[in-house]
Amino acid sequence: MKLPSLKIGDLEAKIPIIQGGMGVGISMSGLAGAVAKTGAIGVISGLHLSLSDPKWGKDFRKANIEALRQEIRKARNIAPHGIIGVNILVAITEYATMVKTAIEEGIDIIISGAGLPLNLPEFVKGTRTKAIPIVSSARAAATICKSWVQKHDYVPDAIIVEGPKAGGHLGFKREELEHMDDYKLEDIVPQVIETVKPYEEQYGKPIPVIAAGGIFDGKDIAKFIKLGASGVQMATRFVATYECDASMAFKQAYVNAKKEDITIIKSPVGMPGRAIKNAFLEEVEKHAKTPDFCRYNCLKTCDPKKSPYCIAQALLNAQKGNLDEGFAFCGENVYRIDKIVHVDELINELVREAEENLQ
Questions:
Q1: Which of 18, 109, 234, 252 could be bridged to 85 by S-S, CB 3.0 to 4.6 A?
Q2: Distance from CA of residue 205 to its chain's centroid?
Q3: Within this chain, do residues 19 and 168 fall inside the same structural domain, yes or no?
């Protein structure tokens, strides 16, 4: 059976896979453009794009906006006919400006999580840009749909449902992560599909539900398509590609990771996150690090006076290959990665496996 395409409004991706946005500097134009070129959806992370290139200077806010413009244009050059999205965290201080900039550049999709993007429709309404919130429960999906309809007469163009096996910052409390079987993505996805049905009927348009978090291979893709999802979002697998914008040392950390290396950390931004355990994180756990001054004022939820380290700087160090002064976020299944491949090889493998399992 052929894998169905993913339709989001007037956009159609022939391969129903969204490459998840990964900051700082992990999914930029190189990765997003390569993914979009295959017929899947490539996503640039809007978090600290400017930090990986010193040419932008020290006005980090202005630099990040200009870097976003450049990355969108570069991705378009790689995949002029592909679908390109930007992931912009609700929690960043320059959220509104970054969203407006992406729309000005004609971005196809804006994906928003790390909080409820309740004001996203006011920016995208009347444009060709699609608005996709990330949720971790049917309750959050209902809250967003209700708010968007009441305040903006708008429903999500799609919804990404992220389960507890995802990488990076997570939409679950630490105690919930200790009982992941109670919050299975396989259970949450059908609940969200049911939640959006009345809004689909009210507005006469489909609201595709996209499964994310812990999806590793084509068998997983087929499983969620059978459950009613219109597509999947995957991030961890795309790190181990030559086109990923991270350093080779960062990618190799994924290849070398063992199951016992995966850990849940308490992030300075106040959320739990999944990462690969290393000496840096062990020092943090031992309280061997003391609060540093704030360089970037990037996230609303971060209190520099209480933070044992600057997470932006730590993630940037890791992206550049300096894992002694940083760490790598990852998904639950990172230990299953055993090699680095090209994006088109990975996509072909995923499609073949998915179609075999859809029979």
A1: 109
A2: 25
A3: yes
**Residue 136: partners with Cβ closer than 8 Å, 6 or more residues away:** 161, 162, 163, 164, 170, 171, 172, 183, 188
Residue 312 belongs to domain spanning: 256-325
Say if CB 280 and CB 322 are below 8 A apart.
Answer: no
Q: What is the pLDDT of residues 143-185, one digit of tens each?
A: 999 999 999 999 999 999 999 999 998 988 888 888 888 899 9
Instruction: For residues 161 and 141, give the distance between their C-alpha atoms in angstroms, rounded to a whole number.
Output: 9
- Kindly state the tokens that stand for 28: 């930029």
Q: What is the dihedral of CA 296, 300, 306, 311, to 10 degrees?
A: -50
Determine, yes or no, domain membership for 194. Answer: yes
Query: In one letter, which amino acid is 53?
Result: D
d(CA 276, CA 330): 6
Same domain as 282, residue 186: no
For the sheet with 168-169, list strands across it.
168-169, 272-276, 262-266
Q: How many domains does the chain have?
A: 2
Asked if residue 1 is part of any domain, the answer here is: no
In a domain, 280, yes or no: yes
Could you tell me which residues come within 8 angstroms of residue 260 by beta carbon, excluding any fewer than 6 positions away? none
User: If you average pLDDT over residues 296-308, what whole number do you get?
Assistant: 61
Q: Which residues touch 355 (CB under 8 Å, ≥6 apart)?
A: 1, 2, 3, 218, 222
Does residue 294 surpass a pLDDT of 60?
no
Give backbone dihedrals phi and psi of 267, rounded to 5 degrees, phi first: -75, 150
Q: Is residue 28 part of a domain?
A: yes
213 and 264: one domain?
no
pTM assigned to the model = 0.93
Are both 34 and 90 inside the same structural domain?
yes
* 316 lies in the same domain as 234: no
For the record, the structure tokens of 254 come out as 């994924």
CA-based angle 15:71:321, to the nearest 5? 90
